[in-house]
Amino acid sequence: MQRRYDWIVVGAGIIGSLTAWRLCQAHLRVALVDAGPPGQKASGAAAGILSPSAEVLAPGAMASLARASLHRYPDTVAELVDDAGMDVAYEMTGVVQTAWTDEEVTELRTRWEWQRDWGVRWVEGREAERLTSGDWPVQAVIVAENEGQVHPPQLVAAAVRAGAHRGVARFFGKPARLVVEGSRAVGVSLPDETLWADGGIIVATGAWSGLLFQDLGLHLPVEPVRGQIASFTVEVPWLRRILFHGHTYAVPKRDGRLVIGATEDSVGFDDRVTAAGLTRLGRILENLRLPLDELHLERIWAGLRPRSADGLPVLGPWPGYAGLYLATGHFRNGVLLAPITADVVTDWVLGRKSTVDLTPFAPGRFAALP
Ligand SMILES: Cc1cc2nc3c(=O)[nH]c(=O)nc-3n(C[C@H](O)[C@H](O)[C@H](O)COP(=O)(O)OP(=O)(O)OC[C@H]3O[C@@H](n4cnc5c(N)ncnc54)[C@H](O)[C@@H]3O)c2cc1C
User: Fold this and answer.
1) Ligand 1 close to Cβ of residue 314 (< 6 A)
2) Within 10 Å of residue 215's Cβ, how many Cβ atoms?
3) Which of 7, 113, 165, 224 would you label with 264, given CA atoms 20 to 30 Å apart?
4) What tens digit of pLDDT does each residue of 189-199 get?
5) Ligand 1 in contact with 175 (CB < 6 A)?
């Protein structure tokens, strides 16, 4: 018996699992495939921060995409929790970006100038110190009370469960290869069978997306960037908001843990924790000037972020192949960008015009590369 679906989503990280659920909500026959268990790669490793103000460094298309996704979070989570019957620890904790030196103040103030209509505040002096609830030499901060966090492993689990509830067919522990006939993507081959797609394939395989394309003799420049990250238990939680200093962060979790991150290592597909990573995390702890004696190490782990050649997500149809759609390259912000990604894929599948400008993210920008 041939198994046929309208759409096959390859990759059950946060991008693929949320997308499969959305497609099934639209009454399509959907299969979700993963080489391993769902949510065990980048999505399971993420800190869960939802912060356009700290993560987007320039105005433009990426800022709009990140903001649009943040705005979709409350409704997405409400629907997901309803469908899945489980919580995802979504909270508007607030995010504080700190400047400690004159140079950092200038840099942060420049960022705030173009972010000021996002509802973020610029605060200096004593009030800035109070907002960080710590003992830091903070000169100024950007405060985003309308940003926060989620627990990524629970978010993926909820998306998979909600999808199953809606009828998503799941094939886990099965590495997939794309099957094309002429210039059409028609299915995926698994170790024990082939699944066929009448509509097409959504490639959501994160850092491994380039490998799927390599199989077809196509070059998709998406590379893994390892992030090493650690969690600590604290006896008396004192940090209320997510704290950023530069690219490093401390995230207070609902259960009292503090997550500290993260490194950026270009080491291919190696997702092991290293001694160099431990050292770097130690420097991050010092850099954040956390009370080291009060932090008890809980866990250190690592994951591979998918980074495209220009650092932007890759969203849209691959030119030259009918039915081949990419939803990858989310780099440091896949958790933040998951709701908008799932929605734009669904819009595209249903032939609806997207409400956001996707031109800068079109896969065609890489299609001509050797
Ligand atoms: C340490 C760290 C901290 C982070 N913190 C944050 C954060 O705070 N906020 C945020 O927004 N983002 C964060 N990120 C980034 C975020 O985790 C990623 O952008 C996001 O998880 C990417 O999701 P994905 O579904 O595309 O990829 P993944 O979660 O990696 O999922 C891809 C899936 O594809 C599967 N796959 C691969 N090849 C095949 C194949 N051939 N066949 C079938 N399946 C296949 C894999 O098994 C995997 O399950 C962080 C990342 C790291 C590493």
Assistant:
1) no
2) 12
3) 113
4) 999 999 999 99
5) yes
Give the three-class secondary structure for 293: helix
Residue 339 Cβ inside 6 Å of ligand 1? The answer reads no
The pick from 17, 208, 216, 229 for probing ligand 1's pocket by mutation, whose C-beta has the most ligand atoms within 8 angstroms, reads: 208
- The SS3 of residue 264 is coil
User: Is any atom of ligand 1 closer than 6 Å to the C-beta of 328?
Assistant: yes
* Whether the Cβ atoms of residue 225 and residue 212 lie closer than 8 Å to each other: no
Helix, strand, coil percentages (3-state) for the chain, rounded to 5, are: 35, 30, 35
Q: Is the pTM of this model over 0.90?
A: yes
d(CA 123, CA 9): 45
**CB of 363 sitting under 6 A from ligand 1:** no
d(CA 41, CA 43): 6
Which atom of ligand 1 is nearest the CA belonging to 204? 26
Full set of structural domains in the chain with CATH: 3-84+152-222+309-367 (3.50.50.60), 95-147+223-308 (3.30.9.10)
Ligand 1 atom with the smallest distance to the CA of 263 is 1
SS3 182: coil
- Give the model confidence (pLDDT) of 262-321 as tens digits: 999 999 999 999 999 999 999 999 888 888 899 999 999 999 999 999 999 999 999 989
Phi, psi of 68 (to 5 degrees): -60, -40
